[in-house]
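Thread: Newbie trying to understand structure tokens

Hi all, I'm a second-year student working on a class project, and my supervisor (Dr. K.) asked me to get a predicted structure for one chain before our next meeting. I've only ever worked with sequences, so writing a 3D structure as a token string is new to me. If someone could post the tokens and maybe explain what I'm looking at, I'd be very grateful. Here's the chain:
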Amino acid sequence: MRRSAVRVRKVAHQFTQTMEFKEHIKHLSHKYYDYTVECRRFLHQNPELSKHEQQTSEFICKELDKLSGITYKKNVAGYGIVGFISGEQDNGKCIALRADMDALPICETTNLPFKSVKNGVMHACGHDVHCAILLSTIRILSNLRNEFKGKVMFIFQPSEEEYPGGAIEMIKAGIFNTIKPSAIFAFHTTPEMDCGKIGLKDGNYMASTDEFYITIEGKGGHGAMPNLNIDPIIAASHIVISLQTIVSRNAEPSIPTTLTIGNFITEGGRTNVTPSTVKLQGIIRTFDDQWREEIHKLIIQISEATAKSFGATADVFIDKGYPSLFNNKEVTEKTKSLAIEYLGNKNVLDLNVRMTAEDFAYFAKEIPACYFRLGTKKEGCTVTNLHSSDFDVDERVMEYGVGFEVFLAISLLK
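---
Reply by user tm_fold:
Sure, no problem. This is what the structure looks like when written as tokens:
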């Protein structure tokens, strides 16, 4: 009985300590909320496209230079930044936190006082929020180094929005050659989820992405004498329809697959002129590498055979993009458990697969990973989707995001 009483008191003491520490982190994330907002608004006002994130990188480095106990390297794979925060003891453990930096070629139509000053460039995907959250996370962790052991690796990644993506370039630059983390984490703003909620899914989560470009060559001529022409528009139209059978009649129903033609371009045609050339452009999204390769073969076979049946030719180029993103089951389950502990069960959601793509998938192939979502929906406001000209977030998400990242890192490195 006496041992049981001691054990109960010990567990109760540990629980109290955990609760007090969690509240301390919430206090710090609230304390630095204004700083986080300030960082986000500067980045939002000064967006930079993929491979051009020089000012963004300089701003981040300036903020890192204000902190003690961290080391970092800049200009990695372009304008990327990689660094470490060391805990009180080096026990060989390391986890990594990643944020992407680049903006999109979109003209902002919000009325925000800190809207983009660069015409045609906008943070319409929340990467400004990602960077601001990671900056404040680093700031708090640098002040709590006595609370964890090992290292926290931080990665500010350029060029997520433009293939081949900054993740693979940073891996090629050797960022994991000296120290390889046991787990890596990233998140994304999600306007369809309420602010203050986190969403996760283990296993296959986001799709691979490939682009295809088909050029159909026929024989142009007068539209009133079609018998003398080889009409590439007719051939291309049949190719468009036939390619849809890849999903409807060839895809295994258990493997989500999307094939979309996004562009149908004629060259030289008019109301009374049949063109010689038509170009088709589209995307392929799926989750299985073997099936992905089979899709590529089917696109080529169907396009060439269909064009030939109309006397035309089809040249197919497939640009292989990001792989599918796989969340490690053990790491994701641990992340979910800590999210419930930090935010409460009602604020942690189970997600379905997404057909969107993300070059964090390259990191997830190297290291056990968890990529989760942070809700940014503004209460009472119409949802503005990612990549839209009026995209905005509920900035309170940054307090939740900073607090959870700090709690996650320290909990894994105690």
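A couple of things are worth pointing out once you decode it. Residues 208-320 form a domain with the Alpha-Beta Plaits fold (CATH 3.30.70.360). The longest strand covers residues 183-194. Feel free to ask follow-ups in this thread.
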